Fold this protein.
Amino acid sequence: MRKPTPDAALKGRRAGTNHARVVQQLGKDIVSGHFPAGGLLPGDAELAQRFQVSRTVLREALKTLDAKGLISPRVRIGTSVRCRRDWNHFDPEVLLWYIESGIDARLLGQIQEIRLAFEPRAAALAAANASDAHVQAITDRIHSFLSGTLSPPDVVSTLMEVHAAIADASANVFIQSAESLLKAALVGHFHYDAAFVEKIAERAAGAYRDLACSIRERDAPAAFAAMEAVLHSGFPPP
């Protein structure tokens, strides 16, 4: 069965509604800096005209962006764009808007820092807590990556599945909730560096092999070290 493209795997299922269209375009405009932090969005009448939607649809879209931390409605002032530190950077749509706007080395570096803070521990927890089905899923996907038979998009999609499966097997709900961040890291590298797939296959194959082995053998310290090696060799700072 054909895998979804990396971008589609990160997006999930986007509804083709007017509400979704307004959320996506305004969200991307905010993340790209078209509407800068600290500034005001155009008025409701102008936005409703721009998107050819009712005030009700527009208000619901703005509520969605407010829930993501991007904007803040202010009575008699308007809707202001919030500082980037207030945005929900674990939200899959926010991460996707960064990628669609042109992900840069600085953001990839920040994602790498947070991954180093928790992914090795996630691998150790997976080695300790994973069910037999989890172990099989993780090792099967790593072996698929190591086979050398996948297209570049399928390599990225398979590695997304590897890291998501490890997060799930950790049995830690906070790590599990970071799945979108892990997927965004892979999609971001794929977009940022055209040679990413070739490089990760060359640099990180051994580390991924060690990761599969350590999880299969339930060796938590070895899994921790193997994931550190994966991150340092496969995802070096841009």
